[in-house]
Design a protein that fits this description.
The chain is mainly α. The chain is 89% helix and 0% strand. The protein has two domains: 50 residues; 30 residues. The protein is flat and about 40 Å long. It starts with a helix and ends with a helix.
Length: 81
């Protein structure tokens, strides 16, 4: 998990560095796209290596995080502003 966070941070840093020299890259390749691609590649690598139990555990953890921490502010944003 920490490895994915480190890879994500490094990739976003390189993307921002490249986009300073090539503004078109910054417009076409957004931060959310880079993060999503890293997640997809990590999932494919774990599937190929046969770590399906790890994928299930990670998926269940994210479901819980989303339902308890991230979803309520989205639902109640109208009432909080």
């Amino acid at each position: 998990m920490m490895l994915l966070l480190a890879i994500n941070t490094t990739a976003l840093g390189y993307k921002r560095k490249i986009s300073k020299h090539y503004p078109l890259v910054g417009r076409l390749l957004q931060d959310a796209t880079v993060t999503t691609l890293i997640g997809v590649f990590a999932g494919v690598i774990l599937s190929v290596l046969g770590q399906s139990a790890t994928l299930t555990t990670i998926g269940e953890g994210y479901q819980t995080l989303f339902m308890i921490v991230l979803l309520p502010p989205i639902i109640f944003e109208r009432y909080l502003s």
